[in-house]
Amino acid sequence: MKARWLALGLTLAATAAVGANQPLTLKASPAISFAPANLSIRTSVEPDADNRSMEVVAESSDFYRSSTVPLDGDRAPKTTQFWFHSVPPGQYEISAVVVAADGHRRAVARTQVTVVDNVGQ
Question: How confident is the model at residue 22, as a pLDDT?
Answer without folding.
Answer: 82
